[in-house]
């Protein structure tokens, strides 16, 4: 296949662009690097969907003008990162690992600037009852201030702006809720709710209901895009921060790392398979409606067939974070500045490799429902595509 020059890649005609961002704490700097590459190559999303740290990055993107988005992302990640005692690029791996341990311990004991701080004198760690909004180890008031400073919520809620969806879990029912500026006005509380991961962070009350981190239900909000109505041809960049695949663990830290990876890893293939079943049914209904005589198309049943049927195509570009972080279970609270910068840079490089492939610009067979473009590690090839 002849590659399209990278400088010529533009937004695919008649396709909306969606960016799907997982939860993953400090690993979210990888998402920021990916957005930077998309922004530089005219692949700015029309719709950004996020959970937890993905919701924070999504708000920083949707809540700023195009010229300011990367700068605001950079400001946020600079604000929440811990300065390192030495240049991590100039020391051996053992020193980098020690620095990571120290940065993680610092985050757990003193919190993260601009993000969260320990609750002094809280009775919650002692097992005693407190108000629900204070039922956590850490206070996230600093994050609310940071978001208020860096995100323009009037812009998010203005007409004809980038669409923003953030997912949260209703505490009392376990139901997943998607807060969407296409349907309601979004504020800082909706972003906070999406990232309220217990027991570290307390639930957020919205319209009388308490909400926790949406990642407790589904950490990859791909189904928000797949289930959207009306159907539309879509190019979806999906960022995976956790790996479902991994080696057999042999130490306590490796067991805890594997547990967290599996718990928060994407269920994207399962979601895609379920979507395809429904999509194939919709495609059949669409074909049936097209073959109906014109005289019958005015009937209510025919109109319903037209509504249910579709013939759209979804390109999904999966961008997985490949940093193993020494198989440390606490990698998502490693806010070391060197680690943050490495993740951002890796996200940028991975997105550039995906953009360089330009596979979604090639023609696809009629009736194809989903094409998954899988970014491979550097040592196992560039981008592959599976057509379904």
Structure description:
- The protein is α/β, with parallel strands linked by helices.
- Helix content is 37%, strand content 15%.
- The strands form 2 sheets. Strands 1, 2, 5, 6, 7, 8, 9, 10, 11 and 12 form a 10-stranded mixed β-sheet that branches. A two-stranded antiparallel ribbon has the order 3-4.
- Strand 11 and strand 12 (383-387) form a beta hairpin.
- The protein is globular and about 75 Å long.
Distance between the termini: 19 Å
Strand count, sense and barrel status of the largest sheet are: 10 strands, mixed
Could you tell me the radius of gyration in angstroms? 22 Å
Estimate the mean pLDDT confidence: 89
Question: Which range best describes the helical content: under 10%, 10-25%, 25-40%, 40-55%, 55-70% or over 70%?
Answer: 25-40%
Task: Spell out the helices and strands N to C.
Answer: EHEHHHEEHHEEHEEHEHHHEHEE
* Strand portion: 15-25%
How many runs of DSSP E, i.e. beta strands?
A: 12
Low-confidence stretches: 1-7
| Structural class by SSE content | alpha/beta
Rough outline = globular
Summarize the structure.
The chain has 388 residues and is of the alpha/beta class. The chain has helices at residues 29-40, 53-62, 69-80, 93-110, 141-150, 153-156, 188-194, 222-226, 252-264, 268-291, 300-308, 337-357, and strands spanning 16-21, 47-50, 117-118, 138-139, 163-170, 176-180, 204-206, 209-213, 234-240, 314-320, 370-375, 383-387.
